[in-house]
Amino acid sequence: MSFVKSGLKYRTFAGGIHPLDDGKALTRNKREITAPLPKTVYLFMSQHIGAPAKPLVKKGDIVRKGQLIGELQGFISANVHASISGKVVDVTPLPLPTTGVKSPAVIIERTEEDLWVDGANVISDIDSISPGEIRKCIQSAGIVGLGGATFPTHVKLSPPKDKIIDTVVMNGAECEPYLTCDYHLMLDKPQEIILGLKLAMKCIGCKKAHIGIESNKEDVYRLFKNILADESDIKVDLMEVKYPQGAEHQLIKALLDREFKPTQLPLEVGAVVINVGTAFAIYEAVKFRRPLIQRLVTVTGDGVENPQNFMVRLGTPVKQLLEEAKISTNISKVIFGGPMMGIAQSNLDTAVTVKGTGGILVLKGAKQWESHACIRCGRCIDSCPYGLNPSELSITCEAKEFALALENNVMECKECGCCTYVCPAKRPIVHLIKFAKAEIAKQTAQRTVQSQQK
Amino acid sequence: MLNQTNNNLIVSASPHIRDMESIPKIMWGVVLSLIPAGIAGVFVFGYYCFYVVFLSCITAVVTEIFILSLRKLPVLNTIKDGSAVVTGILLAYTLPPGVPWYVPVVGSFFAIAIVKHAFGGLGNNIWNPALASRAFLQVAYPVIINSDWRTLEQHGAGKLFHNIAKVDADGKLVDAITRATPLAKEAGADMYNFAQLFVGNIPGCIGETSAIALLLGGAYLIYKRYIKWYVPACYIATVFIMVLILPSKAETAWAKNPFYHIFAGGLLLGAFFMATDMVTTPLTKKGLIIFAAGAGMLTVLIRFYSGYPEGVCYAILLMNTATPLIDRFTKPRLYGAKLRKGTECKKG
User: What CATH number does residue B151 fall under?
Assistant: First the structure.
């Protein structure tokens, strides 16, 4: 699907939304600055989807920047590395900023000079490297999907033998309102990102790649187009500015015109999607053997006076970043991620950046909406990019009619939030669907336990 | 470091931003879009019409307050959303201009108390409250609704703000002639020209005669995206085609003129303001098109082959009844799901 505007072909998908004020202007001209080194970092063993890593250090140990402190457990898991040099103060469970569930974390106090651990930060040859070695580098660097889903990248780049991947799709859409960290990364490090993409292609063994960039970042598009002028196998395309353009399904629909079910993975249609941030991390890991210990974070919103794009060490307390961005006194909401899918924080003191944190959005006077009965206007259906009926789902989930909700594909919902955004009755549709999914999972678990007891 | 200092943060599920549209905005938008038709009604039939609309709205709001307090629901916020006012106006617009004061009162009460709240209130009613109440009034006061209508010739058409409600001591209309709408079979040979039909200088109900005022209101609603353009378009197009292809029993000059059918009765009011009611119509585009086409067909069938001159009211009510069924058969296709067994859908 595509349409032509001002002479350029814009690709897109059906459904979705675009807020009138997407808040990107706040940080659009704020180039990357390095946040001051934190005194203490809190490194969670579970900064990815899958099994938590196993802590390798104990209280009192001295660690150096880039040292492995959490080892991956099982197939879907990722390594965790020390992001500063210093002394391990404690290894204790703390509430995760993403879910609020307590998970083991290594607390490191900065006592040493900020030097890399032996073996990291060495330049290596990336032209003759084998796919297996690339995968090993990515795995040991603890790279996960930096677009927010935090799926371990080495797993993503090891597709099952029976699935043939013909294209690596790179997501440069950054469709979440307010966030600009991917934009600045693409602006500053286009060569590195493309090298990272090529390494990912080599790792999977596929020849083609397709980069999608939203049309509000036309400067980045021109930059990439120039660099890739001689490469016929890597295509770059502009996409319409629309949320969720950067989600896997919508990206693949716009660029490759392939469809797959919401619960299916892109490899069903022969594609792998990586974020520009992930591509950059791959480059750093393979070329310099630098593990993932820092990332760009957009600190923005009307609750900070000086919104910025910070290069932040993982595990940095959010409070420090907010002070750096001059936080206002009367803030009402702090969100990890963007406004559409981000997670509201209950306690600023325990919130620290994790691998998936692309943005911290601080809002003054955040509204709480009163929910009304559904007036069946159908806006949610028009906006749902996955062809669900959010109106009916919200009603069935509210009534706890989970069997009916299952029949209406509640499990296929990706919780992108378009339906809730457009709802004139201000129904908390995503909230109700999340609730139903959790209840259904609980019931299924109970049933399994019961059948095992029999 | 990990001590509690800031606990005033709001925690809620995503998304954290919302669209500006809301139920009150939509409802008051509909009220605004109905004003031109009301002005036209007062212009054509006299300011008594204003009392009818006013009385109907007041009764609707008072009934809503009464029922909401009976149901122990928040009263003030619900009243502010304007849905009762919309019902009140729409009901009044479907009434004859010279209707006695108690008819809009009884009608409004019935619309809110029975059609709306007995089925669960806003969002849960099966039928359009204004139309269902109009159907009720047609049965309850057949003489008033069908007969006691006024024509313009007798009351100086075009004269500004003349009071047509001349009633005698018994509250009965003086000089009432039996002509409801230009579509009524008794209308005989005389046909109004299109300029008259367009401006609304014709007999009919309070809010249905002026095509230009209704189109203005409808255009506003489409512009604001409160209604979907294809619903009135499909409805009117279906009526147009059905009038052309179906044989009519009537031998009047207008009977086979599709433009006359579109402009002379309640079709425009129905197509732009009743068939587009969100609550009582299907959810998906496909469903809405089926709904509009079905309403169009039924309208012509009733006008041609039944005892009623007007088919819009019953056509929409019947399609309202079919809405859950339509919804069931027009579910949106799950993204990426196969259309039929064995055929993968590649084009969205």
Answer: 1.10.3430
Q: Check CB contact of B335 with chain A, cutoff 8 Å.
A: yes
A259–B122: do the CB atoms touch at under 8 Å? no
Partner residue opposite B334 with nearest CB, options A391, A412, A420: A412
- Nearest chain B residue to A422, by CA: B19
Structure tokens at A4: 């032509």
- Say if B22 is an interface residue toward chain A (CB within 8 Å): yes
Q: Tell me: the pLDDT tens digits for A154-190?
A: 999 999 988 899 999 999 999 999 999 999 999 999 9
Same domain as A253, residue A164: yes
Strand order in A308-313's β-sheet? A33-34, A308-313, A294-300, A359-364, A331-336, A343-344
pLDDT, one tens digit per residue, over A264-274 is: 999 999 999 99
Chain B hits for A331, Cβ within 8 Å: 9
d(CA A170, CA A214): 12
Containing domain of residue B161, as a range?
23-329
Q: How far apart are CA A255 and CA A210, in angstroms?
A: 7
Of B191-205, B285-299, B304-318, the least confident: B191-205
Domain tally for chain B? 1
CA distance B92 to chain A (A): 23
pLDDT, tens only, A5-57: 545 568 889 899 988 888 999 999 989 999 999 999 999 999 999 999 999 99
How many domains would you assign to chain A?
3
Q: Cα(A22)–Cα(A333) distance, rounded to whole angstroms?
A: 17
The reply to whether B335 falls in a domain is no
Decide if A344 touches B, using CB distance below 8 A. yes
Check whether residue A126 and residue A219 sit in a common domain. Answer: yes
Query: CA A151, CA A275: separation in Å to the nearest integer?
Result: 11
Statement: residue A235 has pLDDT above 60: yes
Residues A163 and A264 grouped into a single domain = yes
Q: Does B77 touch chain A (CB under 8 A)?
A: yes
